[in-house]
Amino acid sequence: MNVPFADLHAQYLGIKNEIDAAIADVIGTSAFIRGPHVQRFEEAFADMMQVKHCVSCANGTDSLYIAMHALGVKPGDEVIAPAHSWISTTETITQAGGNVVFCDTDANTFTIDPAKIEALITPRTVGIIPVHLYGQPADMGAIMAIARKHKLWVIEDCAQAHLATFDGRQVGTFGDAASFSFYPGKNLGAMGDAGAVCANDPKLAERMAMFARHGGLVKGDHQIEGINSRLDGLQAAILSVKLPHLRRWTQERQRVAARYGELLAGIEGLTLPQVAPARAHVWHLYVVQHERRDALAKHLNGLGIQTAINYPVALPFVPAYQRLGHVPADFPNAHRQQSRILSIPLFPEMSEAQMDAVATGLRSFAG
Ligand SMILES: Cc1ncc(COP(=O)(O)O)c(C=O)c1O
Fold it and tell me: More exposed terminus of the chain, fewer Cβ within 10 Å: N or C?
């Protein structure tokens, strides 16, 4: 049995009539840029994320850049970010004019290790960007305590974690700003690139909106130089159709993860993902670890089971950051995990037969 890594077409078929009608509505009204669809989505998304303001933009990467620009990052400022993430988290620090300071991840959760943050703080440190990687919240209790103590801002990178909670509170509500991606494969995905940045502080939200829209809130009124980063009407309408389904899809992801926990228990050599206390994981990705990861991936792929590696090389060791001169001992957990991690299929529409096929594939490798 072939098992895809994700099945976006199955999701579309489940809501086809609503999506098709929403697209037709945007085309019928020619509301392609800003307009009512974008405004409706911003309001509905802020509401579901339990924050006061949502500034939509072109993609999740821009949302990080926009937040950092609005928070006033300037040359020489240092920003602490996890050694294990997608490069958007850190390339935007550089784009905003800051310096990237990597912190190792926790051995079990793949999220930034708060115990290692304080040693990295210098007089030039201005902020921390925890990433709720794979859908598991970072330790926001410890991170916010450090941020308050040292007067640092926090941008939560929620690209993979819509609706995840820490201590019963939704991610994106802890920091000064929260960045979201609606890349098609994300838990809430558009049909193209899209993103948003959320905040409770109206002044920060206004600065972010202004920067994202050529430096002005009203067309032609350029208070500052900005950028052009817009969510278009089609994506907004599509996202508005999908948003009410997000909780159900999240529960389906949690169902699959729980079933995997039963099916994959006790397979020799296979480490299953762990959920730390006080977290509700939303399973953007189900990431196992194995000493012979590449052979395991080949075995599964040979059986028709798609896998992915998120991500093959920890950020301090990609060529883009060679200039920082890091060695594996600087980030022992992130470095060890980079050769062991394997993402296996997980999507809300996954059937019992598909999960069984994955489990059988993993067992046959071990056996
Ligand atoms: C952790 C993380 N941060 C940021 C992003 C950037 O999002 P986008 O691809 O929408 O620019 C992504 C998604 O790729 C991500 O996974």
Answer: C
